[in-house]
Structure formats: C-alpha cells, structure tokens
Design brief:
Heat Shock Protein 90; 3 domains; alpha+beta; Helix Hairpins; 4-stranded antiparallel beta sheet; 12 strands; Beta-Lactamase; about 500 residues
C-alpha cells in the first residue's frame, strides 16, 4: 500500500490548535488601546451612576433600621403599660396582643422565671429572623418581646455596602491611565500562551494520532498478508474502544477466513469422495462373486488347500464389507443435502436421540430452565449430535469407562450453545489442530469423516463446532456446537 504524501494529521492538529489560540491574542494586541480606553470609560461612567443609587439604597436601609427599632420600642412601651401585664397576670390574653411583627411575648419575674409565654410559629423560618426586646415593667418583672424581621435585610445591606466600596474603587481609576507595563505584560502572556498552545497541540495530537497510527500500521500489515497482526491501543477512551473493535473485526475476519478455507477443503474432499465411491463400488461385486464362485467350485480332496481357500474367501469377504462401509461413508460425504432451516424446539430434537437403543442407556441430558428454539435443519443437526454422542460413547469405552455422555444446552446473548461431554481420555494437544480434518481420527476404528461432516453442517448453519480448550466436568473431552439464536417468540408451526 502506497503511503499518502502531504502534511501528517499530527502536524495538522498542532497548526490548528496554535492558530485557534494565537488568533484571538493577536486581535487583542491590535485592539488593546481601544479596548483599554473603552473598558475604563464605560466602567467608570457606570460606576459613577451606580454610586449615587447605592448611597440612596444604603440611606433607605438605615432609615428602615431606625424605623423598625422605633416601632419595636413603641410597641414595647405600650405593652408595658397594660394593667394585666404590669400585674404579671398569668391569665392575660397574650395571643390577642400578637401582630405587627410581634410573634412572641413572655412575662418574666425579677429572678428571670417565666410567668407565662406565648409564641407563634413562622410560616417560613428561612425568610425571617427574630429580634428580642426586653422591656422592664413599672413595678417589678419585665416583658420579653420577640419581633420578626426579614432575614435578608442585614445581609442585603452589607452586600450593597461592599458593592459601593468596589464601585468607588472603579470610579477612582477613571482619570488614571492604565500603566504601560500592563501592555508589555499582556504581550508576554500572549507569547507564553502561544507556546503553551503549541506544546499542548503537540501533546494532544500525539495522544490522538498514536492510536490511529497503530491502526493504520496494523491495517497495512494485514493487507500485506500478516493476518495475525493486531493493534495495541491502550487506555479506556474512545480510541481504545475503536482499537478493540478493530481487533475484534480482525478476529472475526480470521475466523471467517478459516471457516471458508475449511469449507473449501471439505468441498474438495467431497469431489474426491464421490469419485472414490464410484470407482471402488463398481469392482466390489464382481470380486466378491468371483471369490465366492472359486471357493464353492473347488471339489478337490486336498484339505490343506481347501482350508486355505476358505480362509482366503472369508478374508476377502471381510475386506469387501469394510470397503463397502468406506464407500457408504464416501457417498455420505459426497452427497450431503442442502441445509433447509426451520424453527425447531431443541429439547424435542435431543430427546429423540434416546430413541436409538445404542444411546438410550448411556445418554444423560441437562436441559436449561427455559425452552430454547433455533432455526436449523432437523435431520442434519440430529446427525451432528448423534455423531458427537457416538464418538463420546466410544471414547469412554476405550478409556475403560461405561461410555456415558452428557448433553447440555443453553441460550446466550449471541446464540445457542450445545455441549457434548464424554468420559474418555480427552484429545491430545498434538491432535487438537487437526481433529476436524477429513480422514483424521484418534479412534481405533473409523474413517475420520464424522467430525469433518459434523463441522461442515454446523458451519453451513451459520454456527461452529469446536473442541473446548479444557476438560469437560465429566473428565473427558467437550465438543461445543454453536448455532444462531431463534427468538423466544418464534412459532413452531
């Protein structure tokens, strides 16, 4: 792949960041005098107008404070002259006296003990605060009066007062010129900001472009034939997710390529099997008839020759039967029907395996809690499972066990998984990579086509047949069939 020429993405990002930062700084430098004069004049004029308004506001606040104090004092003086209060009458109707900001009255003796007290609750305590006024009575005792005033009154006054001080400071610099050193400092800050922007641009661009460069490099290696190349993008950001998705895509492509190559090899073997089946089948019958005729027509009296001839006939018969089984296997491989999918209840299909008397006593099922439905060819899928179960039984028997096999299945997010566990010795590491190749078998008897046919059927269903990496819970090998999932609302009709 020819690499594109021109400015790289990293330098484009650096230039873009540098231009974005420096352009407003340069514009500010050009307009610094106008900005300075305009800012000072506008702020000073606004300050002058605001000072007068704030001073009036402060005067109004102070007048309100004084008026409130006089009002509280007047109410306290008036209440201190009421006869029932002067007499500290515990039966006095204090509730009728509340109002005009007065929310609480307490009659106190000289020692501070309470004769009677009444207090109203505030509707919104956050909006008001209490002001307590102690008013002595003419003869003895006193009144403790609780008035309410707005809670924000004092903070508002202090806020206005602080704002007035700041505004006076702004107004004070109205006639003063901004020092020329400010301009120089601003220019220095512009330069530092530009350098910082360039450095940040380089740093940020490398963060962005490094993962992209890794992806580009990996893509080039894959295009050059290195199908095992993968991108190393670390982190937890979007680029890391992109790298992970890219690697997942490469894994899927590698798996698809492996499956296609496998199907191509099986297709070639199918052609060979069809031809071999035809070529081997034709001469078997004449050979068998010729041998049978030779054995039956010998009428001599040589017992040794007669015995040898009989044994030879039996050997030929046995080998011919073996060749016929091999021809049947070839014919099966060469004449696999086309997959015709239909909604299928997986539990019903697997239960049918028990109808085979050779499986019934040795097959154990572990169904899931909920029914599972798939789209599959019933006859072909049953053939796959029957082959795996039969292989599992043989593996267990060769290991000296009873040959029991456990079949379990479950629905997952991306499909249906069917596991077939045996009690054999497992598959040796040296045989794992070739276990599904045609004419490769680890059994004492067999053609080595069963697993190849089973995997081809699984692949043509859009799934896979694989050997699990570890041992099964039963101690032997675990073969896993994966199929596309049929939704739970699928109709079986």
């Amino acid at each position: 792949m020819k690499r594109a020429s021109g400015i790289g993405l990293e330098w484009k990002l650096v230039i873009a960041v540098f231009a974005i930062v420096t352009f407003p700084l340069v514009a500010s430098y050009v307009l610094i005098d106008q900005v300075k004069a305009t800012a000072v004049n506008v702020a000073s004029n606004e300050a002058a107008q605001s000072i007068s308004a704030m001073q009036k506001s402060l005067g109004a606040y102070r007048e309100l404070f004084e008026t409130t104090k006089r009002l509280h004092a007047e109410i306290a003086d008036r209440l201190s002259k009421r006869p029932e209060l002067v007499a500290l009458d515990p039966n006095a109707d204090l509730d009728a006296l509340l109002g005009d900001g007065l929310r609480g009255i307490a009659m106190l003796r000289d020692d501070g003990s309470v004769v009677r007290e009444i207090r109203r609750q505030l509707d919104d305590p956050a909006q008001f605060r209490d002001v307590v006024v102690d008013q002595p009575l003419p003869n003895h005792g006193s009144l403790r009066l609780t008035f309410t005033v707005p809670a924000s009154l004092q903070p508002d006054y202090q806020s206005v007062n602080a704002a007035l001080d700041k505004t006076k400071l702004i107004e004070h610099i109205r006639t003063e010129a901004v020092p020329s050193g400010y301009r120089t400092a601003f220019l220095v800050l512009m330069g530092l900001a530009a350098l910082a922007a360039a450095a940040m641009g380089v740093f940020a661009s490398r963060i962005v472009t490094k993962p992209i460069a890794a992806l580009v490099t990996t893509a080039r290696r894959v295009s050059d034939g290195h199908v095992d190349a993968r991108a190393e993008v670390r982190g937890r950001d979007e680029m890391a997710e992109l790298g992970s998705a890219f690697n997942t895509m490469l894994d899927d492509l590698a798996q698809s390529r492996s499956q296609i190559e496998y199907l191509q090899r099986i297709g070639a073997w199918q052609d060979v099997a069809r031809r071999l089946a035809h070529e081997i089948k034709n001469p078997l019958t004449p050979i068998q008839l010729a041998v049978q005729q030779t054995v039956s027509q010998y009428k001599g009296d040589d017992p040794r020759f007669a015995k040898t001839l009989k044994e030879t006939g039996e050997i030929v018969e046995e080998e011919i039967q073996g060749l016929r089984r091999l021809v049947d296997t070839f014919r099966t491989l060469g004449q696999l029907p086309k997959v015709e999918k239909a909604p299928l209840a997986l539990a019903d299909l697997i239960e049918e395996l028990k109808l085979d008397p050779t499986f019934a006593a040795k097959l154990e099922l572990a169904p899931p809690a909920a029914p599972v439905t798939v789209r599959a060819d019933k006859l072909l899928l049953k053939r796959v499972l029957a082959n795996l179960v039969e292989n599992g039984i043989h593996a267990g028997q060769e290991a000296g066990a009873e040959g029991g096999v456990v079949v379990s299945w479950r629905a997952e997010a991306d499909g249906v998984t069917i596991s077939v566990d045996d009690r054999g010795k497992g598959v040796a590491d040296s045989d794992r990579d070739k276990i599904f190749e045609p004419y490769v078998t680890t059994k004492a008897t067999g053609t080595g086509l069963g697993l190849a046919i089973a995997r081809k059927i699984a692949l043509e269903h859009g799934g896979e047949l694989a050997l699990a990496p570890g041992r099964a819970p039963t101690g032997g090998a675990r073969f896993v069939v994966t199929l596309p999932l049929r939704g739970p609302d699928a109709s079986l009709t």
